[in-house]
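Subject: for your reference before the review

Hello V.,

The reviewers asked for a structural picture of the protein, and I figured it would be easier to keep everything in one thread rather than splitting it across files. Below is the amino acid sequence we used in the manuscript, unchanged from the supplementary table.
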Amino acid sequence: MRKLITGLLAAGFIAAAGLAAHAADTKTIAVSIPAADHGWTGGVVYHAQEEAKALEARYPGLKVVVKTSPDGASQANALEDLTTQGIDALVTLPHNSDELTDPLKAVKAKGIFVTVVDRALREPIQDLYVAGNNPALGTVSAAYVKEKLGGKGDIVVIRGLPIVIDEQRVNAFNEGLKGSDVKVIDSQFGNWSRDDAFKVMQDFLTKHPKIDAVWCQDDDMALGVLEAIKQANRSDIKFVVGGAGMKDMVKKVMDGDSMIPVDVLYPPAMVAVAMDLTAAHLYDKLPVRGNYILDATLVTKENAKDFYYPDSPF
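And here is what came back from the structure prediction:
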């Protein structure tokens, strides 16, 4: 018993010493992300703010600054301001890959550890990249569409923004349709916006008297698509496949909604993973450089309960 008590005391002193070392080792992580302009980015902001509090509690010497920006130009200015104030690491989800590449090069040139989340840069200048599996999101969606339509049908596609991850998703989706008679009869950008996707879908419905299914890259856009279909009173469209894991969409899957039979995960909580890994690099000296890619899980009625979080903002 005496040895056990001695061991526990020693472990306690070691843990206390570790906390003291962390407290003495003051560092700052800046988190630069888009403002909550739609549901998914709203989820990103929520998870970033929650993880900032958790990390500051875990590492007493750490300060986490979360800065949101409404557009790419504002985010570039925010990056300059943050680096001028002095930071040890940056976690950023770029508004636009092209617009943010040069500002991020400037940050990296100052010796700051850079973690990029979700929207890949044209040049891989970052130390760490954390994202959902964008090609797999397209591949998984295409496989389901092919199977559900029996290998034949006319579909429309609503893309996100003209950036790298959109290309990755669409290229993989198109590749996944090869060998079938499923044809993409129209495709437009919906800017990951519910309102924009609603307008795009209205245009598709006007142009095309027969549409078998819709693939869009985002659950917010899928909601806009559903509303356009409802207002047009179209019954030819069999189903819509979105992506991200929005709680409203997962609930539809769980409830057996025929128009939303599945969803594909691309969780906004990935920003928290990125922040956690970045802090682990700074304080625990863990080898976190490289790519950290989350799975693009197909959410079905059978497993939807495992991905439904009713208290989440997204």
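For the response letter, the relevant points are probably these. The radius of gyration is 22 Å. The first strand starts at residue 27 and ends at 34.

Happy to draft the paragraph if you're swamped.

O.
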